[in-house]
Specification:
alpha+beta, 17 helices
Length: about 475
């Protein structure tokens, strides 16, 4: 058990950031204490909002000296309880949102240096203003931050073509548990000077250090983008269409999202402003995006692939976006699927990945197992088919008690995770471990790997003050 944070200690922390940026009022703290799904609500004596790396360093030096646990936090959009404190009230919250400067944008080097509190959408916009693309794209991009994206190794819809957050970082700046600052903000693509330490902190969820800035990779902005909604009979047909598209278009495929009809029914029935873009219903849908550095010919490529898909019995119908606004609408359909589940009751979430070739088999087997386990439950399986990441959510049976349904979260997890293991998959594709999956991790991780993780934690955080109780 941690020592209580005394009023005197709160005063010392407050002096570092100034009273204006030290939040002690319980009402004003609310936004920093509740996890996005409402599964966890913590307590803290103070939320600190530093405005510089030096202030972060000073906070960590005092925390190390006093043995005070610190919970680093970005936009607080996480989904596994990794960014909020425990209910005990003996941890301070370190909000990085004031570190929101873009320190450098270098189009010729295809690099941009952002502080941890830069909102993802703002980073995307800054890159676009320089005729470049920063391809990390998430549903929460209007509020999530670069520091949080890197700390959770965010995936998103662009991972198929550009990789996950880890693949989009050249250099990193990190404040360690004892307050020392590791300054590794270089733009180099080649740098073989010893261990590549940036990857220790990316995906560590704030348990090894506090990311304060990073050099991000940029790419040439596509000159042409085509987006389509495609109706299909099954996930097997979707996978076959994906393989056909890869053969015909190769790296031009920048998005390939699978969506079930049940999810779209929830969307059209309960969310304002959404209507079906197709005249007839289909069991499954794909949102496909192709991008090219050539200004012409991409639509012809997409049309020919869809035509071949029709000939092979893979595609039933398709609508290619006629303009940018329609393309944005198609993407908003996909991004709002999690929100569309809320009006129909409780939803038990699974963020799994399996080898791409096994996605259809996994979905079929998991749906059957879940319905057998809880008759009337409504599986909503959607996500990033192109990289094997399935958000296998389960909505409660109609008329069921929400609290009773949610109480069965871990039992439902066992059903789905057993099938995930059968296919050699992961129980956390892009959301992280946090608090929600901490106790599950040792059962699915190689024992030697777990031992190395614990060793790294003890080495970099010997007093266990950085986000304790999360991940390991």
């Amino acid at each position: 058990m941690n020592k209580p944070v005394t009023p005197d200690l709160v005063t010392r922390f407050t002096k570092i950031v100034g009273p204006r940026y030290a939040i002690t009022d319980a009402h004003d703290q609310d936004a920093y204490l509740v996890e996005g799904r409402g599964l966890y609500k913590g307590k803290t004596p103070v939320v600190l909002r530093p405005g510089s790396v030096d202030e972060v360093s000073a906070i960590m030096k005092l925390a190390f000296e006093s043995g005070t646990p610190v919970v680093p936090q970005g936009g607080n959009t996480g989904l596994v309880g990794g960014g909020v404190p425990f209910e005990s009230g003996d941890e301070i919250v370190l909000s990085l949102t004031r570190l929101d400067k873009i320190r450098d944008l270098d189009p010729l080097s295809n690099a941009m240096t952002c502080e941890a509190g830069v909102i993802l959408a703002n980073a995307q916009a800054a890159a676009a203003d320089a005729d470049r693309l920063f391809p990390l794209s998430l549903g929460a991009q209007g509020s999530c931050t670069i520091g949080g994206n890197l700390s959770t190794n965010a995936g998103g819809t662009g991972a198929l073509a550009y990789g996950v957050a880890r693949d989009l970082v050249l250099g990193i700046e990190v404040v360690l548990a004892d307050g020392r600052v590791m300054r590794g903000l270089n733009k180099l693509k080649k740098d073989n000077t010893g261990y590549d330490l940036r990857h220790l902190f990316i995906g560590a969820e704030g348990t090894l250090g506090v990311i304060t800035a990073a050099v991000l990779k940029l790419f040439p902005k596509p000159k042409a983008v085509e987006t389509a909604i495609i109706g299909l009979p099954s996930p097997q047909a979707a996978l076959a269409l994906f393989n056909l598209a890869r053969e015909r278009a190769g790296g031009a495929i920048t998005g390939f999202e699978l969506m079930p009809r049940i999810g779209l029914d929830f969307l059209f029935d309960h969310m304002n402003g959404f209507r079906d873009p197709m005249a007839t219903r289909h069991p499954w849908y794909v949102l496909a995006e192709f991008s090219s550095q050539k200004s012409e010919g991409l639509r012809d490529t997409m049309e020919s692939i869809l035509a071949e898909g029709v000939e092979q019995g893979l595609v039933v119908d398709a609508v290619i976006a006629s303009n940018l606004e329609q393309a944005k609408y198609f993407w908003s359909m996909r991004e709002m699927l999690p929100e569309a589940q809320k009006p129909v009751g409780g939803s038990i979430k699974h963020d799994i990945s399996v080898p791409v070739a096994t996605v259809p088999d996994f979905i079929e087997e998991a749906i059957a197992a879940v319905v057998a386990f809880l008759p009337g439950s409504r599986p909503v399986a959607f996500g990033h088919l192109g990289d094997g990441n399935v958000h296998f959510n389960v909505s409660q049976p109609e008329g069921a008690d929400k609290d009773e349904f949610i109480a069965g979260w871990h039992a439902m997890n066992e059903v789905v995770h057993a099938i995930t293991a059968k296919y050699g998959g992961s129980i956390s594709a892009e959301h992280g471990i946090g608090r929600l999956k901490r106790d599950l991790l040792p059962s699915v991780k190689d024992p030697v790997a777990m031992d190395l993780m614990r060793t790294l934690k003890r080495t970099l955080d010997p007093k266990n003050i950085l986000n304790p109780g999360k991940v390991v």
